[in-house]
Amino acid sequence: MPHLFASLAKLPDFPFESEGFVFLYRACSLRDAHLSAIRVQKQGLYGLYDFCILQIKQKGGDLFKAQKSTRPLPVGVLQKALQILARFCKVSYSNLGTPSPYFESPFLIHWDRFAFPQSYHLEIGFGSGRHLLNKAQKNPQETYIGVEIHTPSLEQVLRQIELLGLKNLYLAQADARALLEILPSGCLGLDVHFPVPWSKSPNRRVMNPQTLEHMRAILCKNAWLWLRSDDKPYFQQSLQLVLSLPCCDLQVCKNIDQDMVLSKYEARWRRQQKDIWDLKLRVLNPINRSYLPFSLDAPLHFKAPTKQEPLHLWQQKAWIQENCFLNIQDVLEYENLWLLVLSLGDLLTPLNKMVVVDRKKGTIEYIGGLPLNTKAHRQAHQHLLEILQEENCG
User: Which residues are S-adenosyl-L-methionine-binding (predicted)?
Assistant: First the structure.
């Protein structure tokens, strides 16, 4: 990721603006005196970029890098912001390279304004995107949505969408295990090809009882869930999961050529003569799902505290329930603002976010956008409101 190390840093007074980037303020950590966060915003072609750059005092100078949970996509936005900061620094080393224009795409999904189609095809973990791109090319009248967590894969496929002139393929950066909970019904087909098997951490697998239920909830009647894997234990666990359903219509294949373009992973496995398993599950009885907003649907205000004790926020123990949790890892302070570094949501799909609390106005703002509107996120957010209100009662 882009970063720089400066032996001397003399930044202008905040806020300041350069080339459309607004450097709003610098908040200082109450937990680590060497750490601060610079909040940056820039209006892009398709939305607002809102992120933080960490400034970490180290021996011999300051390190500037992205706060990971707010890192923008494309990464070139972050690179440009760091290049602007570098003008006010004596840079010892960096990996910023030569300034270059970054690519913004209308096909990157922003959940707060994405108009979801009535019917769509979904692929989870598309990697290089060969299979997904090929299907979108062959079926221009159909809408395709790809979900991926890996930033380089997203940027690569977004460029391919532009180069191929596709108008029917959209990509989302998200943890599919959480996203599946809020997607609408109308899915005509769901592909999960060569997911990470997570042999040492099976709880991180995309195939589990909860996600299978969500997959069945979004798939139309007679639509297919198609799992491909080169990992036998993963495949066997997924097969047993499907067979545990009250009734199912499925196909199981081993080393059978499929009518599809090969992904780079499958091409590699074939060269290595590895076994490849296919599981196709046809949905017989769809589960009716009511529509939910994509982004967190919850109050973003509280009664403004009269007694400020920010240290109490991160010194308290993590709040852990059966299906959700909230942990305040740090508090950074700037004038009337607290920047809370949070981990929250489902214990199996934890989400890291930064939240701005305006203790005078009594408002909450999630840097980089609201969390997905899952039950665990709503519960964790509600508990955060209760904690802030407790500060008021102090």
Answer: 123, 148, 175
**Per-position DSSP letters for 158-169, written without gaps between them:** HHHHHHHT-SSE
CA 394, CA 389: separation in Å to the nearest integer? 9
Binding residues for S-adenosyl-L-methionine: 123, 148, 175
Helix (H) or strand (E) holding 385: helix 375-393
CB atoms within 10 A of CB 88: 14
Are the beta carbons of 63 and 56 closer than 8 angstroms?
A: yes
Residue 51 DSSP label: E
Distance CA 39, CA 25 (A): 6
Question: Could you read off the pLDDT of 56-109 as tens digits, one per residue?
Answer: 999 999 999 999 999 999 999 999 999 999 999 999 999 998 766 778 999 999
Q: Inter-axis angle of helices 130-138 and 151-164, to 10 degrees?
A: 30
Q: What digits encode the pLDDT tens for the residues 297-326?
A: 999 998 876 455 777 787 778 999 989 999
Annotated binding-site residues read 123, 148, 175, 200, 230
Which token pair is 234? 């993963």
d(CA 69, CA 52): 9
Rg, the chain, Cα only: 23
Structure-block tokens of residue 9: 């840093």
